[in-house]
Amino acid sequence: MTHRSSSIRSKKGKWVNNERLEFLGDAILDAIVADILYKQFEQKKEGFLTSTRSRIVQRETLNKIAMEMGLDKLIISSTRNLAHNTNIYGDALEALIGAIYLDQGYRVAKRFVFETLIRQHLNMDKMLKSEVDFKSRLIEWGQKNKVDVLFEVVNASYDTQNNPVFESCVMVGGMNIGSGKGYSKKESHQVAAKIAIRNLRESNLLQEQITHQKNEDSNEALDKQLGVSFQDLPGE
User: Fold this and answer.
1) Active site residue 94
2) Does residue 91 have an active-site annotation?
3) Which residue of the set 22, 91, 94, 167 is catalytic?
4) What is the model's pTM?
């Protein structure tokens, strides 16, 4: 539960935190949820499975579950980080899943995810009826920060079963910040928006490029007023 902002030096002189466990837990959680959905929804197509998994593992959901479990009370982190980054809670949950996997193996980790996370803390019926609209959330963020967010279909093809496949990209400040494929233009837009949001959250360089481009496009008198806020990016 130790965040990198409060890393502890081990006896061997190595700084210790939950960052590596978080990385592992993120991958294990994705695999477990995919495994569960694949077996529970045998008649559903890949698009449904991908969308449902995204809703389960999205950051807002993990943050909420972590707080309901009381993990927020166990996290060791600087006060400033906890106050400004609620994603720390979801990160801690992923680290816990990674630790369970390392200590007890995949089967126990899967049982924890299914019994504790999904059964106790998720309303699956409600979740399946809802849909995370990544495109609308990204557009709203752009409007709030006066940044143009454009969606473009860059390719259309057919899969091996002759189903149409569309590829779309998200353009912000003239830069492609995320691409995605789907069996409809709408689905490809949603996938591209989700990836764009993730890229914006994780890449400081991309954030700097967008802010720089925006300032270049504005006149000098407005430069100081037109900062871009990446704190209010929508959750995945």
Assistant:
1) yes
2) no
3) 94
4) 0.54
